[in-house]
């Protein structure tokens, strides 16, 4: 025994742990025996009263499940966290439940199990102030209704009697940037006959306060009002949202709004426009003021925006060819018949323009630009060219293409003015005449071109001939120029020579005249001198002759002459005359002079000649 006691004392801590475990496990039952209830933090106690011994209201009325006056059953009031007295276990059953927590990004949708019946024609119970369903007594006392509640619970933590309210969570509705939300409500007044959407209702916080929406006269069904980008607490039992892209009006376009809701508008175009009605902003019909380029939160279920190009629009009547706008995707090449029975195709391009202020009128008349193309432009342009082709043959039509194009521009422009559309230009593209006719024209053209080619070649040959001549002339041009320059120079030299000769002649004349005068003067002087000398010599000779005979004087003169000229006394040449046969001295001298002159002409010295030559005997008969 002592050993057991000692072991127990030494292991007291083990018994302490076991005791604590038993206390924790049985504390509620222990306190419950004394009517004490402990509610932990983040929890509530739902009280179920098992019976009532005394009092008139001992049991719940028919259909009632929550007790408000102490009746037996589930009590409306709950126990908050803490310590509570007087809840004896044989009379009360306490169920501990955790707080209701609505996480971020979620909302709580509430359904009540007790309360008044919902009014006829409604599907959601009206909103009752009850501290967001945390005060069940206030909810039931203020006329809360059984069933789905129109009010919602935002994110947070709540002490809600789950025996009365069932809480379901759902996502918060988020409208993305660049989109709008189109709202359809499941509760409200019926739409008036002829209306497709309920008008905008104020003061309901963008459909987040369902009770305010109904109290202000909201209609059931599609709503004209849209919601913009953001997060919203929508009760899914009341509101459904469809997200659509915002309406975009591109650059170089305007948006013409066609409204299917609103009051019937009064036409603002006046009597001049009889093709449709244009109304003011917010009224039903085609709005007179278009939307400029940009993005707009348009309800596409109640309004339609028709984008109308305000830049020039090119429409092609050509099979397989279409512009980016696709307004001409159904247009094809125009087939026409000429007056001479030929059928051929032609491509046409029409340029039109719709100005900003006239865009609503075009939409009021046709509903869309594509309808304008199919209802007006296609028949107008097709018929014009068919009529034009029938008034001429193919060759004439081809030859007058430019004139046809100008006339088409004027005629089509006048036709489109009635529809407030500007015709910028009409262009005739490819024309495909019949193949047989084209072959004939081609052959003719080839023959004409060949003729032109031959003529051109001939002209080229003539030109080449002229070129060769020009080249030859150019090649001799230098000589011609040189010759011309020589002629010019010769002319100048001749003129210079003439002038020089004239000058020399004049000079010589002057010199001759001077020389003549000098000669005359000198001659006269010489003559006088010679005369004087001759006279003197004559007088002397006469005196000498007078002193001796004449024959003797002559012999003396001859001897002097021979001596002065070194003439041999025996002559090399003997000259005999017919006279007395004797040699005359004069003849001898003459012969000597002849020989001397011949030797001088031959370049032989007279002496050598004299040595070689045999004596010549000249005989003169």
Describe the protein in words.
There is one protein chain. The chain is an alpha+beta fold and 621 residues long. The protein has 5 domains: 123 residues, no CATH class; 74 residues, no CATH class; 61 residues, no CATH class; 126 residues, 2-Layer Sandwich (Tetrahydropterin Synthase, Chain A), CATH 3.30.479; 68 residues, no CATH class. It has 12 helices and 28 strands. The strands form 10 sheets. Strands 3-4-2-6 form a 4-stranded mixed β-sheet, with no helix packed on it. It has a 4-stranded mixed β-sheet with strand order 19-20-18-22, with helices on one face. A hairpin with a 5-residue loop joins strand 24 and strand 25. It is elongated, with a radius of gyration of 76 Å. The N and C termini lie far apart (232 Å). The C terminus is likely disordered.
- Count up the domains: 5
- Which structural category fits the helices and strands? alpha+beta
Distance between the termini: 232 Å
Please report the number of helical segments.
Answer: 12
Number of strands: 28
Alpha-carbon Rg, integer: 76 Å
Which strand-content bin applies to the residues?
Answer: 15-25%
CATH topology of the largest domain: Tetrahydropterin Synthase, Chain A
- Shape estimate: elongated
Helix content: 40-55%
- Name the CATH superfamily classification of the largest domain: Band 7 domain
Low-confidence stretches: 575-582, 604-621
What's the CATH C level of the largest domain? Alpha Beta
Physical arrangement of strands within the biggest beta sheet? 3-4-2-6
Mean pLDDT rating: 82
Q: How many strands, what sense, and barrel or not for the largest sheet?
A: 4 strands, mixed
Which architecture of the largest domain would the CATH scheme give at its second level?
Answer: 2-Layer Sandwich
């Amino acid at each position: 025994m002592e050993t057991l006691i000692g072991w127990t004392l030494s292991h007291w801590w083990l018994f302490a742990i076991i005791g604590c475990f038993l206390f924790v496990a049985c504390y509620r039952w222990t306190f419950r025996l004394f009517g004490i209830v402990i509610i932990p933090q983040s929890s509530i106690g739902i009280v179920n009263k098992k019976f009532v011994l005394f009092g008139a209201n001992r049991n719940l009325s028919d259909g009632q499940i929550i007790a408000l006056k102490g009746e037996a059953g589930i009590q409306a009031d709950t126990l908050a966290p803490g310590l509570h007295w007087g809840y004896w276990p044989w009379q009360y059953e306490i169920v501990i439940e955790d707080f209701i927590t609505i996480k971020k990004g979620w909302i709580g949708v509430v359904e009540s199990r007790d309360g008044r019946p919902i009014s006829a024609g409604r599907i959601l119970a009206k909103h009752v102030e009850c501290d967001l369903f945390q005060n069940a007594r206030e909810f039931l006392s203020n006329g809360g209704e059984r069933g789905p509640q129109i009010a919602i619970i935002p994110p947070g933590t709540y002490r809600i009697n789950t025996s009365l309210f069932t809480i379901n969570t759902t996502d918060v509705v988020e409208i993305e940037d660049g989109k709008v939300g189109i709202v359809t409500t499941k509760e409200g007044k019926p739409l008036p006959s002829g209306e497709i959407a309920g008008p905008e209702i104020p003061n309901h916080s963008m459909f987040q306060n369902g009770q305010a929406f109904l109290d202000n006269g909201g209609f059931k069904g599609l709503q004209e009002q849209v919601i913009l980008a953001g997060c919203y607490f929508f009760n899914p039992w009341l509101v459904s949202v469809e997200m659509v892209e915002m309406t975009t009006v591109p650059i170089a376009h305007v948006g013409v709004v066609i409204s299917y809701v609103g009051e019937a508008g009064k036409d603002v175009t006046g009597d001049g426009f009889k093709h449709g009605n244009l109304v003011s902003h917010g009224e039903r019909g085609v709005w007179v003021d278009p939307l400029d380029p940009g993005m707009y939160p348009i309800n596409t279920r109640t309004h339609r925006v028709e984008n109308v190009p305000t830049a020039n629009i090119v429409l092609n009547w050509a099979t397989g060819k279409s512009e980016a706008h696709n307004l001409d995707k159904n247009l094809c090449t125009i087939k026409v018949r000429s007056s001479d029975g030929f059928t051929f195709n032609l491509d046409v391009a029409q340029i039109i323009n719709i100005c900003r202020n006239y865009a609503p009128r075009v939409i009021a008349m046709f509903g869309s630009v594509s309808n304008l193309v199919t209802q007006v432009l296609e028949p107008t342009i097709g018929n014009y060219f068919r009529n034009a082709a029938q008034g001429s043959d193919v060759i004439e039509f081809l030859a007058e293409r430019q004139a046809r194009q100008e006339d088409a521009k004027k005629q089509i422009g006048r036709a489109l003015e009635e529809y407030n559309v500007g015709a910028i230009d009409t262009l005739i593209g490819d024309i495909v005449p019949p193949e047989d006719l084209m072959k004939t024209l081609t052959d003719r053209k080839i023959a004409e071109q060949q003729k032109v080619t031959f003529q051109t070649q001939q002209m080229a040959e003539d030109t080449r001939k002229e070129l060769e001549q020009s080249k030859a002339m150019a090649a001799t041009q230098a000589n011609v120029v040189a010759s011309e320059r020589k002629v010019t120079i010769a002319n100048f030299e001749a003129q210079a020579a003439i002038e020089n000769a004239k000058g020399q002649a004049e000079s010589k004349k002057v010199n001759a005249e001077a020389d003549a005068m000098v000669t005359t003067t000198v001659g006269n002087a010489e003559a006088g001198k010679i005369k004087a000398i001759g006279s003197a010599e004559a007088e002397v000779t006469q005196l000498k002759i007078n002193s001796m005979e004449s024959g003797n004087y002559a012999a003396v003169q001859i001897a002097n002459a021979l001596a002065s000229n070194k003439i041999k006394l025996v002559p090399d040449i003997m000259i005999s005359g017919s006279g007395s046969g004797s040699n005359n001295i004069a003849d001898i001298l003459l012969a000597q002079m002849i020989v001397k002159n011949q030797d001088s002409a031959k370049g032989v010295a007279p002496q050598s000649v004299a040595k070689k030559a045999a004596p010549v005997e000249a005989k003169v008969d």
